[in-house]
Amino acid sequence: MTDLTKLSAAALADKLTAGEVSSVEATQAHLDRIAAVDADVHAFLHVNGNALDVAADIDRRRAAGEEVGPLAGVPLAIKDVLVTTDMPSTSGSKILEGYMSPYDATVVARSRAAGLVPLGKTNMDEFAMGSSTEHSAYGPTRNPWDLTRIPGGSGGGSAAAVAAFEAPLALGSDTGGSIRQPAHVTGTVGIKPTYGGVSRYGAIALASSLDQVGPVTRTVLDAGLLHDVIGGHDPHDSTSLAHEWPSFAAAAREGATGDVLKGLKVGVIRELPDSGFQTGVSESFRTALAAMEAQGAEIVEISAPHFEYGVAAYYLILPAEASSNLAKFDSVRFGLRVDVPGGTVEDVMAATRDKGFGDEVKRRVILGTYALSAGYYDAYYGSAQKVRTLIQQDFSNAFSQVDVIATPSAPTTAFKIGEKIDDPLQMYLNDVTTIPANLAGVPGISIPSGLAAEDGLPVGIQFLAPAHEDARLYRVGAALESLLVDSWGGALLDRAPALGANGGGR
Amino acid sequence: MAKAKLMDFDKALELYEPVLGFEVHVELNTETKMFSSAANPANSANHGAEANTLVAPVDMGLPGALPVVNETAVRYSISLGLALGCSIAPSSRFARKNYFYPDLGKNYQISQYDEPIAFEGSVDIELADGEVISVPIERAHMEEDAGKLTHVGGSTGRIQGAEYSLVDYNRAGVPLVEIVTKPIFGAEHRAPEIAKAYVATIRDIVIALGISEARMERGNLRCDANVSLRPRGQEKLGTRTETKNVNSMRSVERAVRYEIQRQAAILADGGTIIQETRHWHEDTGTTSPGRPKSDADDYRYFPEPDLLPVAPSLELIEHLRAALPEPPAARRRRLKADWGFTDLEFQDVANGGLLAEVEATIAAGASPAAARKWWTGELTRIANAQGREPAELATPADVAALQGLVEAGTLTDKLARQVLEGVVAGEGTPQEVVDARGLAVVSDDGALIAAIDDALAAQPDVLEKIRDGKVQAAGAVIGAVMKAMKGQADAARVRELILERAGSTGA
Amino acid sequence: MSEITPDLVRHLGVLARIQLSDEEVERLTGQLDAIVDNIAKVSEVATAEVPATSHPIPLENVFRSDVAGDQLTPAQVLQNAPDSADGRFRVTAILGEEQ
Ligand SMILES: [Mg+2]
Ligand SMILES: [Zn+2]
Question: B482 versus B266: which is more confidently predicted?
């Protein structure tokens, strides 16, 4: 029998629908895989002890002839930033160790309603602050391609779980690249939807005006299927768009035929320097563009002069909003409390936040407090919000000339664990290509473009589209994906080393 | 705490000019909270709920929770802004005011900062002598209330010396409108009276709009009073103090008077006023300084990223404007004419802050004279004795029902006062008190005649005297009968029966 | 150079309610100084005529109708409480004033 963990979610769903496999079998296969490899990968912070019961319930409903969704019975990994009623939600922080939410995040509730089987909660940089998952309070996640390397971040757990075949689908969140950059370094697919396209209700807020929840998968079609489940208007989120969205799965299927590339105008940003990008990353990017050109796409150079200010604006807006969003972790209502004998509640709060927050969180909270404090607001936060306007203008100028913009998803392939941990500035530059989409609210997708020649590690290509045009990304992404997979003679992840005791990996 | 030195009020006014300012917080009586769909404890339907039973995730700052604005609260705020003569902002925004405090679930308050929904207005208030003064309004903005702390241990129940505190988030997220005046100049001797009249007017306005229960004792309406003094002839404003949470109209008047006297004594001694928050103590009639804030007031305001601008259409604003109740001054003129009161009678009601109560009592069926009599008489007397507001003691419906019982002959005036005591003590409606205490007038002539016979037996010469034309002799018998009946008899009926008896026997 | 000093970092720690050790203050001072030097360049292009953007996708008048729902049970409210008494959250003595 086929290894159920190697199937795409779409293929697994077909087998479930056809009755060839049960959800219990599929779920058990993934639980076995987790048992075999997660000691090495450490993608999960918590594995759902009720997963098989949930799966059995789906099987029962299906057998009873109930109408179930297209992904019913397919296992799903959930980034720990999303609150769940049946599993702890920590956002990778000690301050929330053991925290049980009395309500489900909207995306979780929608996934459950669609019959997806929650497998567990995935590791992440503490409060999603980071690009390597090294800032998790529960230890780093390792890249399935090379266990000595980072899986990207903040959603390294979700990307690694999918890349290591521990789950066919995962949910992530992307504030400055936390879905797309992990996809890049793990050879997987990740989408940051248009801001407001997916509900933020129940996503533990990092930076409210930048955060978006999105799918993390191995194929573009799988991402579309999951996006169809979690997306759409949510009255619990004021910033949620009351927009009629097309089916993204349908867009991906349409794109896979390849026709969409003919006449497609693909913008390449003039100001994005070649230097600073690893050679293999630049080469892979150009190879992918050439493949698209060969199918009739037109590569157009565009100018985005303010993108270079993106990282600076981002590292003002994010810490400012985060400093306020993280104020709720104060030891009064939930989470860690550090007692201070004879101390006041102020002392208890300060001691709890000292002990409960890691260095990166403290660094950003202090930075954000500074950026908002009286006398600095205009120069820092106020200016950063203006840069946002300029970046939006750059995007709208660009999209008057091209259909999509393409960039490498990140400047380098996966670096070694520990390599950049002591250099926050260097770490922040990982997000240079992904940040502008968050600042402007536009959607972005990262799909595998190949392996870097010098280190054999995965590289991703990012496409950006105008706000509300997420479907365009699915069409283009699926088109390029099918071209590249054909040219490789199989999925990129087929070339990843085997893992765990069963596979005899490292 | 050492007792502050006070200067004689008239002397203080000779030397210094008081400048006033007020921040009034109004709790709206919407069904649900400002940013969550938990039930609103500032709506009477939910008053007195058990701790932490009216809480949604966003009210206690649960991870992942998000605020969504209550449309009715926005409409109420616009109506209030219009009633205050304000302009309504074509677009206004919410902001986060960041500070740590255990009653604040998120450790920031969602408020409005540089873009309030309403700005630049004025309110006419009428003083006891009928003079109308215009109070300038700077802004009215929407925000959320904080939870409630109970301080346990220590002697006072106050924060100082408490061992620990308990937090209830029911009130967290209750919709508030904060009304901020501009500095009020020229108040002079009338400063305390203006303070009281201003709060009374705001209360009248929100009651007329129906947007708040406006029960000050419940904290539905809370006043922070700013007072500063400047020496006569000086242009520059003096340093102000802000006396927080003065929660009755009477206290607002007293607190302003006290601060003028206290500050004047300090200034006259060559001292300086510290810009600080002060607390009002109802029991001693004094203010005391709050502890200095450790965070140096750096609230790090920034636009609330979870919420979007509020941009009311002109149509909505004009629709709400057209639905406004009449302004307080016009309303007073109308009520005075409708009720037919003399100037003195009307001022008695108005200065007691009882217009709304009297109006509602009349609407509930009482005559204007009776409604006035109860509110400015017995209820005001009890309120003064208990240091409370008349409106806290009984509802207009109770008062109208009580008067109805008097007019039906069920109660004498004296019995009615006893019934009112029962109502004030929380024993129920007037009818319930009558039933429970057995206070109704005995209207059965048989019982009265039996008592009259007993009294006549003790004073056999009375009937003779009456027949001789000394009708006043009946008084002694009436007194004895009333005593025997424990006051639950109609004295007029008793008298009638005695005269009847004298007549019939003599015929 | 930016003006990040140890005293400023200590003050920010008080505002942010994080008890920072001297060693942390020193380390953060250096790191923040370098970061702020780098991100201060936003003011180069943020001229007066450029409007600020708070929300990436402009919307307005997003409201909820005034209808009850979403209320937690008291047990849910208290389920993660570090300490509670009488159905309320318990905290140790409070130093500061109510705002
Ligand atoms: Mg420390
Ligand atoms: Zn306020």
Answer: B266
CA distance A204 to A388: 23
Chain C: give the shortest CA distance to residue A383, in Å. 5
Cα(B100)–Cα(A324) distance, integer angstroms:
10
The residue to which tokens 């922040």 are assigned: A428
Name residue A101's beta-bridge partners. Answer: none
Q: How far apart are CA B76 and CA B117, in angstroms?
A: 11
For residue B36, which of B7, B62, B8 has the smallest C-alpha distance?
B62
Q: How far apart are CA B345 and CA A391, in angstroms?
A: 69
Active site residue A79: yes
Q: Which ligand is nearest to the CA of B244?
A: 2
In 3-state terms, what secondary structure has residue A34? helix
Three-state SS for B422-471 is HHHCCCCCHHHHHHHHCCCCECCHHHHHHHHHHHHHHCCCHHHHHHCCCH
Q: How many pairs of residues across A and B have Cβ atoms under 8 Å apart?
A: 100
What is the structure's pLDDT at B158? 67
Closest by Cα among B462, A131, B65, B289 to C76: B65
Nearest to A111 by CA among A249, A215, A262: A215
Catalytic residue among A8, A22, A23, A79: A79
Spatial separation of the C-alpha atoms in residues B103 and A149, rounded to whole Å = 45
Query: What's the ipTM?
Result: 0.96
Q: Using the 8-state DSSP alphabet, how is residue C48 labeled?
A: T
In whole angstroms, what is the distance from residue B191 CA to residue B227 CA? 10
pLDDT tens per residue across span A178-233: 999 999 999 999 999 999 999 999 999 999 999 999 999 999 999 999 999 999 99
By CB neighbour count within 10 A (0-12 exposed, 13-18 middle, 19+ buried), where does C1 fall? exposed
Catalytic site includes residue A154 = yes
Pairing state of beta strands B276-281 and B286-289? antiparallel
Structure token pair of residue B433: 């008190």
Catalytic residue among A22, A132, A178, A199: A178
* DSSP designation for A68: -
Tell me the residues of chain B between 271 and 330 that have a Cβ less than 8 Å away from chain C: 277, 290-291, 293-295, 298, 300, 303, 305, 307-312
Walk across the sheet containing C88-92 and list its strands. Answer: B148-152, B164-168, C88-92, C84-85
Tally of CB atoms within 10 A around A288: 24
Contact of B366 with B407, CB cutoff 8 Å: no
C71 touches chain A (CB under 8 A): no
Share of chain A above pLDDT 70, in %: 98
Query: What pTM did the predictor assign?
Result: 0.88
Mean pLDDT (chain B, rounded): 91
Q: Ligand 1 centre and the CA of C10: distance in Å?
A: 12
Q: Which residue from C minimizes the CA distance to A388?
A: C53
- CA–CA gap between residue B401 and residue A309 (Å, rounded): 73
Q: How far apart are CA B202 and CA B214, in angstroms?
A: 9
Q: Which pair of structure tokens corresponds to residue A114?
A: 């669609």
Q: Using CB atoms, which residue from C17, C36, C42 is nearest to A384? A: C42
Sheet strands side by side (includes A212-217)? A44-47, A117-122, A75-79, A169-174, A212-217, A189-192, A444-451, A458-464, A404-408, A265-269, A298-302
**CB-based contact B31 C55, cutoff 8 Å:** no
Tokens of B91: 């677009």
Least confident range of A274-278, A295-299, A484-488, B141-145: A274-278
In order of A23, A118, A380, A392, the CA distances from A29 in angstroms are 10, 14, 51, 45
Rounded to whole angstroms, the Cα distance separating A259 from A475 reads 9
**Which residues, other chains included, contact A76 with Cβ-Cβ below 8 Å and sequence gap of 6+?**
A111, A116, A117, A118, A119, A167, A169, A170, A171, A226
All residues of chain C having their beta carbon less than 8 Å from the beta carbon of residue A349 are 17
A98: left (phi over 0), alpha (psi -120 to 50) or beta: left
